[in-house]
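--- STAGE predict ---
source: upstream dedup step, 1 unique chain passed
mode: sequence only
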Amino acid sequence: MKKILITGGAGFIGSKLALELCKKGYEVTVLDNLSEQVHGKDPEMESPLYLSLKEKVQFIKGDVTEHSSWQKAIGDNEIIVHLAAETGTGQSMYRVEHYTKVNIGGTAIMLDHLVNKDHQVKKVIVASSRAIYGEGKYFSPELGFVYPSSRTPAEMDKGNFEVTYPGTKSPLRLEATDEESKIHPSSVYGITKYNQEQMVMVICASMNIAPVAFRYQNVYGPGQSLSNPYTGILSIFSTNIRNHLPINIFEDGKESRDFVYIDDVVNATILGIEKEEANHNVFNVGSGEPVSVLDIARTLTRNYGIEVPLQVTGNYRLGDIRHNYADITRINKILGYSPSVKFEEGIRRFTNWVKEQKIQRSGYEDSLKEMKAKGLLK
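--- STAGE serialize ---
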């Protein structure tokens, strides 16, 4: 029986992963601070994610920014899956110190422990993110493959939302972003995730601990927080729809993301845990298909059977990208991963689950006001 620690293990991905590993006979320890933003005000009584784990794992309520929590959690575990992180792209742009403290600082404490204290850890898997790429990969007829920089407020104020690249005249063609693509994050969140990834890949390799990094795309499915207004567009839109509130569609609604179902993410992560071929590699984890924000909103309203105004406002957030979807060739070739849940089926499962949940108060407008006050929403 292998012993495994999952940080952030009471979160959306972590809880599902923990339960699957328990079924496979692993002895699972979870370290989580049960953040109110994710779990609500009384998580030990009301959080379905935490309650799904209760009495099935060794649960440690603690924080990755505390040395004592790491000391207690690492124990005699052989594998660490480091998921604990703050994840709001927009929020990261004005809570810079907090995101840096949790994401980079927490990872640094873990690695410091592994370098300087006795332990049994043989492998560390770190949750990276598609956000490290910034804008995705494009093809220019004049220049070949290019990686556009962040769009400027001056252009977006005019309604010019598509990316451009110096020296090109023809429109750029969107391509799948592979692991060799340029790393140029456009948000503090993306910067911290790349720091996490690189710290783990470098330090663990120097200590003969096998590192693996998964660059997750936009993960969705039953169990994700319906009350967190800072992350998870499917949850944010769902809460508004169920409250019969309009949806603010940023830009022109044609911006796109790669949405990957939670079961596929868990399966990919388990392949990374169990396969030696994963060691010392970084992998994209996605569906390999882009979906526009407007298509998401329309699909959700159709599945809920509730019509609300879809307001294409032209608003935009500083730090947001236009397009990015994953090239999953590497993870398929090395680990045998293929996504099993198509978007339409995943949305059906997600919305069926949402319909069974208590309707949450939408805090989305409050979050938009907060970003606008910080000068980050235009």
